[in-house]
Design goal:
With 218 residues, the protein is an alpha+beta fold. It folds into two domains: 49 residues, no CATH class; 157 residues, Immunoglobulin-like (Sandwich), CATH 2.60.40. The protein contains three helices and eleven strands; from the N terminus they run ααββββββαβββββ.
Length: 218
Amino acid sequence: MDVSNKTLAVLLVATIAVSLGALFVSINKFESLEKYSVSGFATSNATGTATLTIGSTARLIFQDDTVDWTSGSVNTTGGNLFCNLTTEGSNDDTTYCIGFTTDSDGLILRNDGNTIFTSVRLNSSQTSDTMLGGTDPLLMIRASEENNACLGELNWTSMYEIDSDFTVDVASAPQLCEDPGFNFTEDDDDIYLDINVTIPYNSNTGARTVAFRAMGTY
């Protein structure tokens, strides 16, 4: 049976009024009733928790990893000596090039993790001379960024020739994005690399490929 606060107060007054001998009995009776009472005399706090651990992820990927101009040759009609192919826009027209297709999408390097890379270096498997050969070949690269992807200095923002400095080990290669580094936040995590090649009429023939490798430090 529930005992109201009013009833409980009456019992307490009665307990005070009785003799000392009866007080002990009354206190025992009060303790037996306590578990059925609703009391405003005490407060209580409880805490629940949910715990997880989120790890840091450092991951660079080439979101777009291929440039392919298919096959073709230099149109030497009229004494022309070169054909220029680029991902920045259209290739040289048929006055200079025969057969090549347009590929206007360069490479896209993405910080795909949740960690800022304090620097990013880029090396190359080829130089202008080793990839193309012939008279005055050019293999060039230009970097641009999505919003504020490179928090430091972004290098090669105009076309820059790939020379032997790029062919060293990637850990010693030139810096693409300098300290404080390459961002990872959405809409700020891409660096675009446009490629330009100038093929001389007497270049090497057959399939010509260059591979770029990026390394981030964090």
